[in-house]
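Minutes, methods subgroup
Present: GH (chair), OT, SY

1. OT presented the first of two proteins processed in the latest run. Sequence and structure tokens recorded below as shown on screen.
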Amino acid sequence: MTDEPGSAEHALYLAVVRAGGRLRPEELAPADRPTVAALVARGLLTPTATGYTVANPRALGDRLGAELRLRATRLLVHAERLPGTLQPLSRAYEALHRPPGAEPGGSGSVDAARLDGVGASTAAVRQCLSELLAGCKQEFLAARPGHHATEALRTTLAQDLALLRRGCSMRTLHQPGALDDPATLRQVALRSGEGAEVRVLAEPYERVLVFDRSVAVIPAAEDRSRAAVVTDPTTLAYLVAQFERDWARATPADRNLGAPHPTTVRIGRLLARGLTQRAVATRLGLSERTVAAHIARLRDRYGARTLFHLGWHLRGERHG
């Protein structure tokens, strides 16, 4: 018995102490007998010829402490052995999911697939990205240089929209040429309509996808034939800082996306009527994070520095 005394045992022990440290059988109520038995088992009451006497609780504390330390030591030993015990199962799983031609032991990398979704061997990267998108809870950052993002965007459309609708934020960087492609433009507009923020940066930058600032996926080869999954906190902090630097220099892509999405229009109308961000979210059944993303895009569109400034612009404009 290594758990601590319960409230009933505490109360009875203290009552015996207050009575002089002795308990006679005739003073014992029938309902208290199980509690007395528990105190005896713990060593807090000692049977005598005339009843029971209290024992020093320090002895119990020392004994329980020793037993708990022994249990903790055994658990630590078990924890150390567990990875080795599971290693044969892990190897079998990794062999099942390893892309053809990939060498075993390539920790943190996904072989024979392209991050932009173009090419014959895309299953490994798509599976990896699918799991990361499904598990993303707060924020997804994506820097997508080049003119061939359409296939990747089309592949992840359903998951991206689901991510946005459950309240996650999404910020994506494109180069200007990518938005010259009508198919890419349509994909970007679908996400923007659900609150994603999109900016255009007319200069070179590195491809990176960051999930909740805890996992990143980057090219692991110059031709992007390999992808690396990054979890090191220092490296992640560097990648996020690079993204934020590029984001700050980029310009909003709203002017490339045509008229605002109907949801953005509705939010603009409610803001113009004086509703707060929280009230707008409640009225439209959206998360506050999604409404905030729409408001940010409205502020970018109108060059508004504050919500008051934005409201001033919106009151002077009719939304069709």
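2. SY then presented the second protein from the same run.
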Amino acid sequence: MTKTNLKTTTAPIYAHSADCPKLEARLEDLINELVASSLSAELLAQSLAGGMDDIATMVRAIPGHEGRLIERGIALVARCNPDLVVLTQNLRLPVTATALQLVGMNEPQHYRALTLDADHGGRKTYTPDLLIVNSRTKVAHVVDAKRSLISYESARIDELKTRMLAAALVVPDLLYKEHHRLVAEEVRIVILNAQNRKTDIDAGIWPMSHLDHLVEVAGAGEAIGLLQQSFRSRITANWELARQTFVRPSSHRGSPSLPTLVVVEEAEPDDEAVQNDSEDAVTEADVEPRLIKLGFAQVPARH
């Protein structure tokens, strides 16, 4: 994959900013909530007391906690823009055989004017992390936020994008029926990589530094980066406190030497909820052409 970056001199200036005390307080509250529930010094000390299995379980859970932190942080930052409707709950989108065939066997221009009925879903579904709708431009973004793509092979990323495009075909109908007749005239997909590596902007894989362009909030990407740094610093501080609590001063030789905290990159869990590989097919008669555009997220035009 190639990495593409916008020049800062051509990036637009947005009316809304992530640099505000109210947002900072909410992000700090978010860190406090996640740390208190699973990664407090007391809980980390209990893991140390439990032995290597408990320690390993705790360490493996950290990437998942950080992933949820990123998702919820993006939602908070996006809400700085009053034009955006940010949806994070009950977003299981059906992925039908018809939709997969449309995406897999045709170029985007051949199916981008179609939207499928959300009520004719199959057994396979895809659940995005966020669905962000701009009420002013009528553009909806199906967002999958990744802490890291380092463990993802190209084939797995391509398969994820196919599922996202197939699921996006039902978004206009779902928004209209289930979200107060919210209108989307164009649906775009984007995978946000918080690691800012292994990106391909034209193909919908964006670094988190480009979050500003997605939500039209200046400093949005930087805010998520600082959120991650603060979260990791808090965990490290709690880990050191837990070690000090667990290892009492002793004059005896051979005192236990406890490990420093190292989080190993592991593959993230699947992005879809699949009950069965078989699906209920949707006939062509169920597909009504509408003026809906479908594609990858787009960076703003240079000025």
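Chair's summary of item 2: Confidence is low (pLDDT under 50) at residues 1-10, 250-255, 273-287.
Next meeting: continue with the remaining queue.
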